[in-house]
Amino acid sequence: MKTATRRKGKLENFEEEYRSALRAYASGEGELALGRAYELGRRALEEQLSVVELASLHHHAIIDLVRTMEDEQQKEELLRFSAEFLAECVSPYEMAHRVCRARRSGATAGRRSPCIGGSCHGNAGGATSSVHSNQGFVKRGRKTSAPVLP
Question: How many other C-beta atoms lie within 10 A of the C-beta of residue 32?
């Protein structure tokens, strides 16, 4: 029971940090706020939030921010910036996925086991560890600007 309560508290704190960083990025804080999105994505992966949970959290953050705006152009800009922010936030998931896929293909060639802990699926912590242990990969893989979705 304490674990569920602790996770709920962490998630609420994460949600507030996410909203704050998204608001900052949409307000024009640029690369610094986008860097926060990337770090939030790494943290979400470490805390084993699913991509679906992250997308839901993002959706609710946008709704909350849109409700505070009256100008239609501001709303459109928020949607554009929020797509960039979300793409940056999920990039650690993409990197972890690529690491697992590479390890899985290496295992089929008889070179390695699929992932740390023996499984890519259901072991986000293992994938995160492999991404974090290879800092060169993380630095090279990090984007400076996320693509704008149509």
Answer: 10
